[in-house]
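Subject: for your reference before the review

Hello V.,

The reviewers asked for a structural picture of the protein, and I figured it would be easier to keep everything in one thread rather than splitting it across files. Below is the amino acid sequence we used in the manuscript, unchanged from the supplementary table.
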Amino acid sequence: MTTLGIDLGSRKVKFAALRDLEILWLRDFDTIPFYKRYGGLHAGRLTIDFAALELFDPAHPPAAMVATGYGRNTINLEGARIVPEIQAHVAGARFQTGCDTFTLLDLGGQDTKVARVEEGLLQDFLMNDKCAASSGRYLENMAQVLDIGLDELARHADNPVSLDATCGIFGESELIGKIVEGHPLPHLCAGINATLVKRVLPMLRRFPQDVLMVTGGVARNQAFRHLLRQAVEARLLVPENPQHNGAIGCAVLAAARPLEK
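And here is what came back from the structure prediction:
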C-alpha cells in the first residue's frame, strides 16, 4: 500500500511517499511557484494538479493522503485528511529514528516548534509563530545581506561576531554595521548561526534535556548543530531527512488510517 504525505510549508511544499512503511521518494517545491503552477481553489477547498506534478501514476493513486503545514486551518486540501503540524512532525521523527522519548525542535521557514514526547505520546509543546527571527527565514534574510548561499553560511561556527538585535529586521541593520566595521565573513556567518541558537534556547528551557531531536530545513546547517550541541546538555539527534520530516510523518499517519482521506 502506498500513502502520500504533504507538508505545505511557508517556504517549501514537501511530499513523501511510503510503501509498506518504506520511503519510496521525497520531493519538494518552492511554495509560491508551486501554488502558481499546481494549486487552485474550488468551492473553498485547495486543490493540487497531481497530473501536472507527475508524482505518481494516475491509474494507481495513493491509498490515502494526509496533509499538514503552515496555517493548517486554512489548507483544507481536497482528498486529504488534515492533521496538526506537531502531530505530523512527531510521527515523522519517531518513524525516522525509532526513538520514543525525546524533545523535538523543529525550525521551519517561518516558525519554531518544540514538543516533548515520552514513550511515544505527546506531553507538551510550544510554538513561536509570531516572529520569524528564530526560524529559517532569518538565515535566508541574513545570507542575502551577506550575498552568499545558505550552504556557505552553514560552514562557519568559530569566532562568532556578537549580534544582539532581537528583531530580524533590526538584525539586518546590525549586520550591515558589522560588515562596515570590517569583520571577516566567516565570523559574521558564525555570529548569525550563534544568534539563532541563542533565540531558540529560551524555548527549550522548560523541556527535559535528554535527547534533542532537531528537524526542519535549519537542521541541515552544520554550524547551527555544532553551536546548539555546545549550548545544551542533551544528546542531539537529526533524522536522515530533517526537512521532509513533516511530510514523512503525514505519510505514516496515512498508513495508520488508510481509509480516511
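For the response letter, the relevant points are probably these. The chain is about 35% helix and 25% strand. Residues 111 and 129 are 5 Å apart (CA to CA).

Happy to draft the paragraph if you're swamped.

O.
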